[in-house]
């Protein structure tokens, strides 16, 4: 044993300290994941759909598909 | 046992069954096997095991134990450490020490993954037959063209990557 005494370690409230750390951590990690998903996946997807349908003409799309010959009941003109 | 041994000094004839039985009867108890007695364990969640680590003390250790009954301030640092080592095998620091086992484990895992990879290569070369004709380049091109014609996944998927005016993939 060394002649100098070691500093007295933390004896009490060990679980409380651990819990506080993990509660904060869990909260921020989960909120962070949610925020990441929202702004990485959900918002771009909503924007993509909005962009797509902004100037979407279904009849024009249909005629293009018919011309390509993918329909059975609507033959190309 | 002791009674029958004492009688053997007098003469074998003196040893009678009853004395032997009596000697054995006075002992009476079956010798407790080691595994049935409380045992010492080095465990993080058991800070004070049921028995001390050292069971049979040497003469020196017995003397130290006697000294322990007096005032503890009379004990030197080395004696205190010796008393600790009598009671415990490893300190918490020693008990919790890390090891290099993870390197062995990781190495073994990677090695066997490599062996598996070699085996898969052999399989592809010598065991499997040819892949279906629907994986040929011509077929895949026709397939993709048809998917674009049908406007598959026009919002975020494949048809959104094709420029229908210029008839080419979007940059």
TrEMBL record, chain A:
Subcellular location field: Mitochondrion inner membrane
InterPro entries with a match to the protein in the record: Cytochrome_c_oxidase_VIc, Cytochrome_c_oxidase_VIc/VIIs, Cytochrome_c_oxidase_VIc_sf
GO terms in the biological process aspect are: mitochondrial electron transport, cytochrome c to oxygen
Going by the UniProt record, its keywords in alphabetical order are:
Membrane, Mitochondrion, Mitochondrion inner membrane, Transmembrane, Transmembrane helix
Give the record's pathway: Energy metabolism; oxidative phosphorylation
The answer to keyword Metal-binding applying to this record is: no
Claim: Metal-binding is one of the keywords in the record: no
Return the Pfam families for the record.
COX6C (PF02937)
Oligomeric state and interaction partners are given as: Component of the cytochrome c oxidase (complex IV, CIV), a multisubunit enzyme composed of 14 subunits. The complex is composed of a catalytic core of 3 subunits MT-CO1, MT-CO2 and MT-CO3, encoded in the mitochondrial DNA, and 11 supernumerary subunits COX4I, COX5A, COX5B, COX6A, COX6B, COX6C, COX7A, COX7B, COX7C, COX8 and NDUFA4, which are encoded in the nuclear genome.
Similarity section: Belongs to the cytochrome c oxidase subunit 6c family.
Free-text function comment from the UniProt entry? Component of the cytochrome c oxidase, the last enzyme in the mitochondrial electron transport chain which drives oxidative phosphorylation. The respiratory chain contains 3 multisubunit complexes succinate dehydrogenase (complex II, CII), ubiquinol-cytochrome c oxidoreductase (cytochrome b-c1 complex, complex III, CIII) and cytochrome c oxidase (complex IV, CIV), that cooperate to transfer electrons derived from NADH and succinate to molecular oxygen, creating an electrochemical gradient over the inner membrane that drives transmembrane transport and the ATP synthase.
Q: What is this protein called?
A: Cytochrome c oxidase subunit 6C
Organism expressing this protein natively: Dromaius novaehollandiae (Emu)
Organism lineage string: Eukaryota, Metazoa, Chordata, Craniata, Vertebrata
UniProtKB/TrEMBL annotation, chain B:
Q: Name one GO cellular component term.
A: respiratory chain complex IV
Name where it's found: Mitochondrion inner membrane
What domain of life does the UniProt record list for this protein's source? Eukaryota
What pathway annotation does it carry? Answer: Energy metabolism; oxidative phosphorylation
Q: Where the protein is mainly located, per its record?
A: mitochondrion
> Which GO biological-process labels does this protein carry?
mitochondrial electron transport, cytochrome c to oxygen
Q: Which Gene3D superfamilies match?
A: Cytochrome c oxidase subunit IV
Residues crossing the lipid bilayer are 104-122
How is it placed in the membrane, per its record? Answer: Single-pass membrane protein
* Pfam families per UniProt: COX4
Task: Supply the alphabetized keyword list.
Answer: Membrane, Mitochondrion, Mitochondrion inner membrane, Transmembrane, Transmembrane helix
SUPFAM superfamilies in UniProt: Mitochondrial cytochrome c oxidase subunit IV
The record's similarity note reads: Belongs to the cytochrome c oxidase IV family.
Q: What does this protein do?
A: Component of the cytochrome c oxidase, the last enzyme in the mitochondrial electron transport chain which drives oxidative phosphorylation.
Q: Subunit notes for this chain?
A: Component of the cytochrome c oxidase (complex IV, CIV), a multisubunit enzyme composed of 14 subunits.
List the protein's name: Cytochrome c oxidase subunit 4
The organism is Dromaius novaehollandiae (Emu)
